[in-house]
Structures are given as C-alpha cells and as structure tokens.
Amino acid sequence: MDILSRMEEFILLSVWKLQEEAYGLEIRQYLSDLTGQELSVGAVYVPLKRLKKRGYLESWDSEPTEERGGRSKRFYKLTQKGIGALQQVKTVQENAWSNLPDIGFDWAPAKS
Amino acid sequence: MDILSRMEEFILLSVWKLQEEAYGLEIRQYLSDLTGQELSVGAVYVPLKRLKKRGYLESWDSEPTEERGGRSKRFYKLTQKGIGALQQVKTVQENAWSNLPDIGFDWAPAKS
DNA sequence: GTATTAGTTCTAAAATTTAAAATAAATGTT
DNA sequence: AACATTTATTTTAAATTTTAGAACTAATAC
Question: Is the Cβ atom of B39 within 7 Å of strand C at any atom?
Fold first, then answer.
C-alpha cells in the first residue's frame, strides 16, 4: 500500500511535534512516551534516513558546540511532501474508522 | 512497536465493517476502495492468517454451496483481543495527532 | 590524555508486505 | 462423464521494513 507505514507516520508526527528539537534521540524519547514502549535507536534512525531519502524530511546538522559534551545533532523538518503524506494517511485513517456498525455481532456459527 | 501495523489495523477494521461478508476477496475489494489502490491477494490472505493465529480473529468456513460456482468462503470475525488491539491503536493514534503546533515553522537554516 | 556524555551509524536478523502462480472446489455445458 | 468457468484460498519467494544493539564519533571535563 502506497501509504505511510505506522512507524513512518509516527516519526513524521514526532518531527512535526518537536519542532526545533526534532533530532534522533529526542524523537526516540518522544515516541517511547507516546506509545509506552522502549524503542531501540535503530528503530528511529533507520526510518529517519529512509524518510529523508524519499523526500519527506530535510535535515541539517547543529553547530558542533552548545552547552555540554556529545556530538552534534541532526535536526529534521517536514517537507511539503511529508506534510502531504501525513494528510493523506489522516484522511484514509478517518475513512477507515467511519461508519462502522455497532460491534457485538452474532452471526458466527456456534462453537462446537 | 507492539502496536498493530497499518495493514493489520486495516484488515481488522474491514472485518468489523463487513460483518457477515468478511472474507478474503471481499476484504481485498473493500480495502482497494478505501485506499484507492489495488491490493494483491497475498497482501490480504497472508496477514489474515497471522491475525488469526495471534488470536485477533476467529474464522469458519461457509457451507460449500450457495448460488453459483466457486469454492467456499472463509469468514472472519473479531475476537475480544482484536477489538482491544483496535482500541489501543485508536488511542495512540489520537494522541499522536493531538496538540500539534501550527505548521509552517521557519527554524531551518537557510538553504545554501 | 583519559573519562564521560550525547549522539549517530552500521549491520545483520527477524518480521512484514507484496506479487503472482498454483491449487481447490464449486457450478455449468456439451 | 469430461471439460470449461468461476470464485476463492494457499503457497512461496523476493522485496521491504523493523528491530536490536554494538560500534563509532565528537564534544566537554578532569
């Protein structure tokens, strides 16, 4: 399906949400909080690269220095294409959840 | 992430939506309409089996006969676990889309 | 220089998705 | 009865995505 995977959607949304602070480890932390589940570093960095390569994100590296140790951060920002892909997934998502019948059907055959 | 993939979510929702008519090819058609994209048969049957094996769906086969040719259908129905997984994904999804700042940031460095 | 901290890259295994050919099981036709 | 047609599921292998975590980088602190 030519629709963002859930991981891709979540990463794009993290970038949106985090604004000036959208970089790898921060995104990882944000998503862990959101879903209540630990996330390996690879689980974030691998799709980030892919999303950039495909034009959903752009990036730039922070100036080497700041306050304390550690290497520089790679910040991300949504492109127009990225925003469009999010809009699309939102629409399809909403359609999928619309007009569902009441749950609690009873048409399955009785269990033997 | 221990959350339904998008394909899994969509298939479970199809089963919910289609009620008495929830079987492979019908689900495929429904999802093609929903997303506006053709879907191979494997793209539906493979995850259907997985979802059943994991307890999100139960199934039974239709009586061999009906009106016209063709082999019997395998119908699906959500289990409690399946409903729960959909509820979870809905909640996380809604959280992910809440409280997003206005889009149209301008903190990226100027293009060189 | 050596330790510490913060971050990214790499990479291989596992899991999922996808496409399409094969198979199955029913009815219709001659 | 044999063969064609229709509807549906199964199989399978390739492609893609996800995941974990070790390795590496680059800065500051001592």
Answer: yes
What size, in residues, is chain A? 112
Q: Which residue has the higher pLDDT, B6 or A109?
A: B6
Closest nucleotide to B64, Cα to C1': C26
- B chain contacts of residue A37, beta-carbon cutoff 8 Å: 1-3
Q: How far apart are CA A66 and CA A63, in angstroms?
A: 7
What is the separation of C-alpha A77 from the centre of its chain, rounded to a whole number of angstroms? Answer: 12
Q: Give me the mean pLDDT over the B57-75 stretch.
A: 83
With an 8 Å Cβ cutoff, are B100 and A43 in contact?
A: no
Q: How many CA atoms lie within 13 A of B75 on its CB side?
A: 17
Cα–Cα nearest to B8, from B69, B57, B70, B66:
B57
pLDDT digits (tens, 9 = 90+) for A4-20: 999 999 999 999 999 99
The reply to whether residue B13 touches residue A103, judged by beta carbons under 8 angstroms, is no
Interface test with A, best of B2, B3, B6, B74 (most A CBs within 10 A): B6
What is the SS3 assignment for B88? helix
Q: pLDDT (tens digit, 9 = 90+) per residue, B17-32? A: 999 999 999 999 999 9
Would the pLDDT of A112 be above 70? Answer: no
Three-state DSSP at B72 gives coil
Question: Do the chains contact at A3 and B34, CB–CB below 8 Å?
Answer: no
